[in-house]
Amino acid sequence: MKTRAEIEEKYKWDLTKFCKNDEDFYDRLAKVEQGIAQFAKYDGKLSDESFLFECLEKECAFLQEFALIAHYASMRLCEDKSDRKANEMNEKLSFVEVKYSNATAFIGVEITKLPTKQLKNLQNNAKFKNYKRYFEAVLRDKKHTLSKREELLLSKMSECIGNESSTFEKFDDVDLQFDDVLDGKGKKHPLNQSNYLVYFESEDRTLRKNTYKELNGRYGKFIHFLATNYINNVKTDCVAAKIRKYKSALSASITNEEASEKVYDMLVSKVRENLDVQHDYFEIKRKMLGLKKFAIYDNAAPVCSASNKKYTYDEAIEIIKSAVAPLGQEYVSLIQRAKDERWIDVYPNKNKQSGAFASHSYGATPVVLTNFEGNLESVFTLAHELGHAMHSYFSMKNQPYQTNDYVIFVAEVASTTNEMLLLRYLLARAKTNEEKIFYYDHFLRQAKSTIYRQTMFAEFEQFAHEMYEKEQPLSAELLCEKYKHLNEIYFGKNVELVPEIQYEWARIPHFFSSFYVYKYATGLISAIKISNSILTDQNFAQKYLKFLSSGCSKDPISLLKMADCDLTKEQTYKEAFDVCRDFVAKWEKIL
Fold it and tell me: Domains in the chain, start-ordered, CATH in brackets?
């Protein structure tokens, strides 16, 4: 693999938008750290609206500058995880962040203690117009905010409790080792966190099975440690919710993001009602693969050779531009700008951050990291991350700092809408049945992974939290039994499972960000609905761009309604599952 220095400059992102260089980073960080002291003069004075406004403005300016330099350090580390300078930058940042958090803990407490009438007046005060949503949140969270002393105590305690995710990451990234796995010819293959997906997609069924069993089974050998660590995370969630007077950990998570328990419950209900679509998909794939019995480790098996086509980075950009053309010239030109202005870090290099992501900071254009390999999956990944980047760009362009940063609930909508547009574009131009089948399989695999699988995850973590909240004992055995039972339901009676499936939950890092995963499912359901509207209504693109431009200026459910996507209505889910059924029917027709 190439070193960072061997990658051409045009394929590296430009971080000078955040900081000119390392020296600039340290100069600005020093000023930021010195600036923390300025907040002390506001302590105890925020009932005075002039002091309040001044404090909020200074806080926004501080956070905007801190985010810019933090992005520089974080992205530098992503370029090369072994870079000592980048690691030191991020360590220094963490100290400053904790110092800031402790110094400003009083702000939220004092504002929350303001009389409700005053807070409502501030919402309608022209001087505070950019803080309208802020005060809405304060009023919403008022009964959940603790005293100044308690908030400060929790702020300090956060440094040493709730570290279960870090414990898991260290175990997962450093300590966990896998045995080699055998293929159908008896050849050994080294297994690690980077290559297991390649083996899952192998044409060699024995390799797929052995990989599945070894991967999940290895976690099973440490299941009591892993379960204890996760149960402690569940306890932390539940206790924190109780301290802040939420009815449950789920309620705390949903309330904090202004989402809806009705949407959460409807998602689970509608996915359960439409499990037959996933079961039909597995049956078609069984026939396609010529198997007597479809197994859980056959899900990612290739159904045709159309996936072997290779693409250059330049070709990928052009294809994506063509796919998103229905969104208008500005959107297309921004894709080109992302390439020309080096928003994107394209290729893998030694010690580079794996995977892909997009990130943004107010005052600079977004950045995207990929590890482009030239296959079709890389093209979809690039389209996905550029969707995030476009969402960030439009929100930063059209919103003040206070309302530019959209919440996680809507974060996956723009990215998966890009993917849906790309899929439809490629499918419309498929020349053979083999190509069509490849795209059908790609879509249905995504639906399986993003809608069905993430909803199953959501059911699992809801079970774990509710057990603790009901003062029922949690154990490794109980968690494994529940996870196995959920897989039996979601995969159906005609899919063969393996005993090691019961341990799979223990390797899912998202469980340490409780009630996060269901948003992937609602995101794809929304994207299917929105992409259909884009392609069938010439005037719809403007509605969608308005959604992209709205940041967090409204609650996320209301924002999606701007794009005619109402997750509180059954019809939205029906449209998404109808598309899934249509893909299944079209595939079955050409078998």
Answer: 8-157 (1.20.140.70), 177-221 (1.10.287.830)
